[in-house]
């Protein structure tokens, strides 16, 4: 094969090599192009509206009333809505998720693990509309009963989203916990520390950068969630006063009004998407920084 | 006085018998060296003394291990046992936290909360590990950023911080350079005042330099045990003589 250049076998091999190389290259390029195109589309569609409305009025405006004359496009309620619900989801999902991961990685008997692991996997695969339905028929009535109020609240959405981010938090935390060298654990036990103490005060701290990455990815999942949130959060575009108020998120704002919006209204919704996109970019940046810090 | 008194000890990893009929008394406030070729069961035996073998699946122990007259394989709280019988590992394994938190870890796990008390324990422990002067201005630095020799002395300080009665050291200097090694040897000799020390080593000179008593193991059996001077000058067993003169192992 390695002989002279006229060898037809070698020629066709070279052709295949190049062909495959190009194919890989194009595939790799696809995702870059996709991100690039999304950026252009979003920013071109949204940024002009931000300036027409006024950047400050848009982001810090407390009232969203696209049908008023003149219309008001303040998305602060939705920004706060997304932040509240994401915060609530973190409060519910992160402690539960980390404890579950620690349990799965260090404490649970083999037999139980064989059930738990796939169960978490299934949780990750459930479509969000199904979660939303579960929220509507279980969580909302429960919240409404316990607090004798309307159940479509920040609280309901937080609980639901908290459950939805569990697989992300559990999966990544478990990997991080398993990656902690056994010698730390042995060192701790050898000092007479109990099993649980060793897990809490050596293993979890040693896994903290991985766990933090899990939390941030959970935030990303929570902030981008749309369908399930719409079904349980009420959807009122106003600043909430308590966790028992209904609320609208950035994503919900876009989905509920896009079908009938036109002109500036439509552009303002795209601009809402820009704000959401910026949130997601920040989250990705944090993950990247964390990964670099970890190595 | 005997700190440990071990009789008819057998240890199995599943079906493999790693220790066979070990009978040995270990003296209080003394340094005992365990020597023997690789795989003869030195680490295994060391780990039976603080029950770290409990972590190994399929590990079974029979016989008697008395610590101050109490059988540690019967109705003994392993956490309390390990507080009394500390361990320093072959590879330095400080926790990924500051020097201070490493030393304070054990006391905290045993319920010490007062800052003043912890400060005092940290200082004392680092002093007794002969590393206080080197590190007193760097207590908040991560322990993993220190040199291997310093890390090992941190681990010794960490073990000392829970005021154990016995220190088990499994080849504590095998990962270290000669200077760190001699520092740790000096340290071990000083610690003998307060603790019963058992040290596993592959280094015959080290065993001869630091220990009062030496035990020679071969293939899971205790071949010879006696005063270090006697063992190194006139071993009674041919196998012991062969090993210490470097003919095998
Ligand atoms: N966890 C384990 N499971 C099964 N067998 C083991 C285990 N640990 C050790 N052994 C076996 O027990 C025997 C004694 O091992 P041990 O580690 O105690 O030897 P050692 O004397 O400390 O050797 P070295 O000087 O190399 O550290 C060896 O044959 C080893 O293969
Ligand atoms: Mg060993």
Verbal overview:
- The complex is a heterodimer of chains A (295) and B (249).
- Chain A is mostly helical.
- Chain A has a single domain, classed as MetI-like (MetI-like fold, Orthogonal Bundle), CATH 1.10.3720.10.
- In chain A, 77% of the residues lie in helices and 1% in strands.
- Chain A is built from twelve helices and two strands.
- Chain A has a two-stranded antiparallel sheet with strand order 1-2.
- In chain A, α3 (76-107) crosses α9.
- The radius of gyration of chain A is 25 Å and the shape is globular.
- The mean pLDDT of chain A is 90.
- Chain B has ten helices and ten strands.
- In chain B, α3 (99-109) runs parallel beside α6.
- The radius of gyration of chain B is 18 Å and the shape is globular.
- Chain B has a six-stranded mixed β-sheet with strand order 6-7-8-3-9-10, with helices on both faces. Chain B has a four-stranded antiparallel β-sheet with strand order 2-1-4-5, covered by helices on one side.
- The mean pLDDT of chain B is 92.
- Chain B is α/β, with parallel strands linked by helices and 249 residues long.
- Chain B has a single domain, classed as P-loop containing nucleotide triphosphate hydrolases (Rossmann fold, 3-Layer(aba) Sandwich), CATH 3.40.50.300.
- The A-B interface holds A 181, 183-184, 186-194, 197, 201-202, 205-206 and B 50, 52, 55, 79-84, 86-87, 89, 91, 93-97, 105-106, 108-110, 155, 158-159, 162.
- The site of adenosine-5'-triphosphate has 12 residues of chain B, from β2 and α1.
The portion of residues assigned to helices of chain B is: 25-40%
Low-confidence stretches of chain A: none
Radius of gyration of chain B: 18 Å
Give the CATH superfamily of chain A: MetI-like
Question: What's the total number of strands of chain B?
Answer: 10
Structurally, the number of domains of chain A stands at 1
What is the assembly state of the chains in this entry? Answer: heterodimer
């Amino acid at each position: 094969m390695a002989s002279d250049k006229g060898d037809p076998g070698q020629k066709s091999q070279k052709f295949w090599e190049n062909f495959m190389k190009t194919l890989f290259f194009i595939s790799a390029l696809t995702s870059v192009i996709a991100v690039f195109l999304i950026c252009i589309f979003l920013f071109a569609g949204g940024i002009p509206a931000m300036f027409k409305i006024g950047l400050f009025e848009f982001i810090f405006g407390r009232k969203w009333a696209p049908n008023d004359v003149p219309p008001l496009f303040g998305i602060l309620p939705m920004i706060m809505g997304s932040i509240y619900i994401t915060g609530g989801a973190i409060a519910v999902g992160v402690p539960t998720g980390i404890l579950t991961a620690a349990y799965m990685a260090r404490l649970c008997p083999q037999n139980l693990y064989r059930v738990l692991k796939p169960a978490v996997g299934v949780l990750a695969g459930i479509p969000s509309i199904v979660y939303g339905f579960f929220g509507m028929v279980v969580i909302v009535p429960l919240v409404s009963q316990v607090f004798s109020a309307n159940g479509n609240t920040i609280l309901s959405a937080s609980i639901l989203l908290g459950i939805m981010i569990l697989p992300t938090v559990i999966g990544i935390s478990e990997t991080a916990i398993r990656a902690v060298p056994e010698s730390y654990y042995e060192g701790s036990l050898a000092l007479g520390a109990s099993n649980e103490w060793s897990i809490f005060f050596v293993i979890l701290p040693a896994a903290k950068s991985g766990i933090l990455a899990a939390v941030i990815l959970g935030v990303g999942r929570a902030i981008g969630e749309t369908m399930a949130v719409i079904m349980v959060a009420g959807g009122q575009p106003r600043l909430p006063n308590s966790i028992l108020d209904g609320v609208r998120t950035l994503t919900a704002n876009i989905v509920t009004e896009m079908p009938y919006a036109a002109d500036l209204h439509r552009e303002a919704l795209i601009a809402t998407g820009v704000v959401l996109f910026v949130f997601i970019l920040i989250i990705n940046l944090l993950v990247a920084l964390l990964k670099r810090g970890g190595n | 006085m005997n700190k440990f008194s071990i009789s008819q000890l057998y240890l199995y990893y599943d079906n493999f018998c790693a220790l066979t009929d070990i009978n040995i008394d270990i003296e209080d406030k003394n340094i005992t060296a365990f020597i023997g070729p690789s795989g003869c069961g030195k680490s295994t035996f060391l780990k039976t003394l603080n029950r770290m073998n409990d972590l190994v699946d399929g590990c079974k122990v029979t016989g008697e291990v008395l610590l101050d007259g109490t059988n540690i394989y019967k109705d003994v709280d392993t956490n309390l046992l390990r507080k009394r019988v500390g361990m320093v590992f072959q590879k330095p394994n400080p926790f990924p936290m500051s020097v201070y938190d490493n030393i304070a870890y054990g006391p905290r796990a045993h319920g010490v909360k007062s800052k003043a008390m912890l400060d005092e324990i940290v200082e004392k422990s680092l002093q007794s590990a002969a590393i206080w002067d080197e590190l007193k201005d760097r207590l908040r630095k991560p322990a993993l950023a220190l040199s291997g020799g310093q890390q090992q002395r941190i681990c010794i300080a960490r073990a000392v911080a829970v005021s154990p009665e016995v220190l088990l050291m499994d080849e504590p200097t095998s990962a270290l350079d000669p200077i760190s090694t001699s520092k740790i040897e000096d340290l071990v000799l000083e610690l003998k005042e307060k603790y019963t020390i058992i040290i596993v080593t592959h280094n015959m000179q080290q065993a001869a330099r630091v220990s009062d008593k030496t035990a020679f193991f071969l293939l899971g059996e205790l071949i010879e045990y006696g005063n270090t001077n006697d063992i190194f000058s006139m071993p009674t067993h041919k196998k012991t003589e062969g090993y210490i003169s470097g003919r095998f192992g």
